[in-house]
Design goal:
Elements lengths: L7 H11 L54 E10 L5 E3 L5 E3 L16 E11 L2 H6 L3 E10 L2 E10 L9 H11 L2 E11 H6 L2
Antiparallel strand pairs: 1-7, 2-4, 3-4, 4-5, 5-6
Length: 199
């Protein structure tokens, strides 16, 4: 919080930047938005594993912070990408590819100041007729790391067409066919004092 209002033009510019992220929006012109530093990002569950309908899962990630850290609050986000196992059979994800090493990133994913980690897994249709008649498909996940944190995007597309920009109708069809959904959680904010009190 700032002790006085920001200039309207500056506040409007920052408020427009807020809309790019899934974070809460400023309520007053005294809030100063400062992008956080990404502390840690990693899969909390092994990618490609099955989760049954009523399963509950608990995971723990230990994050070590330097003693002279310049912030007093952490913000947590989580994304879970799900697909129906009765509609596709997926192999395990293979090796990692990296945008900064020249690996191709789709134009719709490519943003300034974002490094992308790419994972791919071969898949089969869970229907013998579809498996024999449809183009071979692949599941690709793009992890986009930037000043805002990380975004995870999962794509099911024919092999060689992963970077093609699909229409909204095509995207809806793919999500419906494979039951592909993303579940988002956060932001959950905790001060370092609250975290230390639970130790």
């Amino acid at each position: 919080m700032s002790p006085r209002d920001q200039a309207p033009a500056k506040w409007r510019q920052e408020a427009e930047q807020w809309s790019r992220y899934r974070e809460k929006h400023p309520l007053t012109r005294r809030e100063v938005y400062q992008p956080g530093k990404l502390v840690a990002a990693q899969p909390w569950l092994p990618p490609g594993n099955w989760v049954e309908g009523n399963d509950e899962s608990l995971t723990r990630t230990v994050v070590q912070l330097p003693s002279n850290t310049s912030f007093d609050k952490l913000t947590f986000y989580a994304t879970l990408s799900l697909a129906r196992k009765d509609r596709l059979v997926m192999d395990h994800f293979g090796g990692l590819a990296y945008s900064w090493r020249g690996d191709a990133v789709p134009p719709w994913m490519n943003q300034k100041e974002v490094d992308t980690v790419i994972q791919r897994a071969e898949m089969q249709e869970n229907n013998a007729i579809d498996q024999m008649t449809r183009k071979e498909r692949r599941v690709t996940t793009y992890w986009g790391f930037g000043p805002h944190g990380v975004d995870v995007v999962a794509v099911i597309a024919p092999v060689g067409e992963e970077s093609r920009t699909a229409s909204e109708q095509t995207n809806r069809g793919v999500r419906s066919r494979y039951g592909l959904i993303d579940v988002y959680a956060g932001p959950i904010e905790e001060t370092l004092d609250e975290i230390k009190a639970r130790r």
